[in-house]
Amino acid sequence: MALRSAKGDFDQLPREQRRAPLPAATPPTSPRKRGEVNQKRPEPRDRFAALFFRGDSTALSLSLTLSIALVLRSATALALDKQGSAHGGEVEGPKSGVDLSGGLMLGAAFYNPSYAARPDNTGKTLMRYAAHADIDLIGRRLSIPLDLNMFTDRERAALGKLAPTELDVIAGVTTTWALGPGALELGTRFEHDRPLDRAGDSQSYIDVRSRYVYSLARSFPGLGAALGEGDVSGWMTLGWFAYNPSYFARPDNTGRALLRYAGHVELSILDDLVSFGVDATLFSDRQASDVVRPTELDLTPEMILHEREFELHLAFESDRPIDRGGLVQEVGYALGVWNFSWFEPHRKAPFEERGQILSP
Questions:
Q1: Which of 230-234, 242-246, 332-336 has the lowest mean pLDDT?
Q2: Strand pairing partners for 181?
Q3: pLDDT of 12 over the 60 cut
Q4: Residue 271's beta-bridge partner residues?
C-alpha cells in the first residue's frame, strides 16, 4: 500500500513508495502584453498572473488549458510515497557541504472505501500528518533521510477522528552520484509501523535499494521549451528487503515482502506550475514458490500544483494483490505540502525533486 508504510518516497500497509517528499523552480519573467507598454508587469514569483500577461498565443492557450484543468482537478489524483527517494528524487545536487531540507504535510482522504488506519488493517484512514527531512552531511554524497507519518481513523467518534491511530517511522542513509544523463541513488532504510491508540500488530524491515533518477529535459533541452519550461522526469527503483520479520507482501497482510520494483514518471508544464504523475510499486513474496514474481501492485495517478514553496497533491491510490484474489485497498486524498531548506532558504529545486511525496 502506498499510504501506509507496512503495506511506501495512507508509502495499504504504509509503504514507502507505497507510496513517497518534494520541492520549486524559477518562474519565467513575463513580457508586457502587446499594446500595453505602460502596464505594470507582474512580479516574477507570481506565476499565475505571469501566465496571463504573456503576449504569445501559445502561452494563452496553455493558460486556458490550465484554467480548465483547475476546474476539473477533482477528477485527478496523486500517489504519496511514505518514503521517497532522498531529496525527492533530485537528479543532481551539491557534492559537499551541510544542509537540512524537507517538508511538512497535511492530508485528508476524501474517498476511502477500504484503506485501513492501522497496520493490522482495522479502521479507515481519514487524516495524514507527515514530515520529511534530508540531512546532508557531505552534500548528496552522504545523506540521512527521515520520515514520520501518522494516520487517523474516520470510524472513531467525534474528535477522535483527528487523533493519530498509526505511526510510521522511516530512517536511512543514502549516497547519490551522477551517472549518464541522470543520477544513481544507493541506500538503506529501516521502517517501523505501529498502532498508537491500542495494542496490535506492528511491521518492521530493513532494506537495501538502488534508484535511478532521470530528467529528459536535461538530455533534450528542446523538450523543456516545448512544455513551457517543463520536463518529463522520474525514477526506477529496485530494492531488497534484507531483514523482514513482519512486513507483508500483499494488502491483506499475507506473505513477507522480499523484492520491491518501482517506477515513477511525471510530466511538468508551465514552469512546473502543474504536474501530472503516475507511481507504480510492486512487491514479491519471500514465502512464495517464485520469490521474484510480483504479488502486489500499488498504482497511484496524481496531479500536483506548485507555487513557490507550497504544493497541493490530489491522488487516487489502489493497492491490490496480483497473484491471487484478495483484499483491495483504495483511497482518494488531497495533500498540502510546505517545503523548506534550512541553509538555502531561497534555493530553487529542479522539477524532478518536486512532488514526490511519500505515499501513505
A1: 230-234
A2: none
A3: no
A4: none
For residues 134 and 170, the answer to whether their CB atoms sit within 8 Å is no
Give the per-residue pLDDT at 334: 97
**Closest alpha carbon to 263 in 299, 209, 223, 317:** 299
Q: Which amino acid is at 11?
A: D
Q: What is residue 247's three-state secondary structure?
A: coil
**Cell (9 digits) for 190:** 529501516
The mean pLDDT of the chain is 77
Q: Which of 314, 308, 325 is nearest to 357 (CA)?
A: 314
Q: Check which CATH number belongs to the domain holding 130 and give it.
A: 2.40.160.40
List pLDDT tens digits, range 98-118: 888 899 999 999 999 999 999
- In one-letter notation, the amino acid at residue 356 is Q
CA–CA distances in Å: residue 24 to residues 77, 181, 274: 20, 21, 11
Nearest to 256 by CA among 219, 295, 221, 222: 295
In a domain, 58, yes or no: yes
**pTM for this one?**
0.72
Domain span at residue 109? Answer: 47-353
Place of cell 544542509: 99
Q: Read off the C-alpha cell for 17.
A: 513508495
Into how many domains does the chain fold? 1
Task: Tally Cβ neighbours within 10 Å of residue 32.
Answer: 15
Q: Which long-range contacts (CB under 8 A, 24 or more apart) does 49-55 make?
A: 51/270, 51/273, 54/30, 55/31
Written as one letter, the residue type at 6 is A
* Dihedral angle, C-alpha 350, 352, 358, 360, nearest 10 °: 130
- Asked if residue 66 belongs to a domain, the reply is yes
Residue 272 — pLDDT band, cuts 50, 70, 90?
Answer: confident
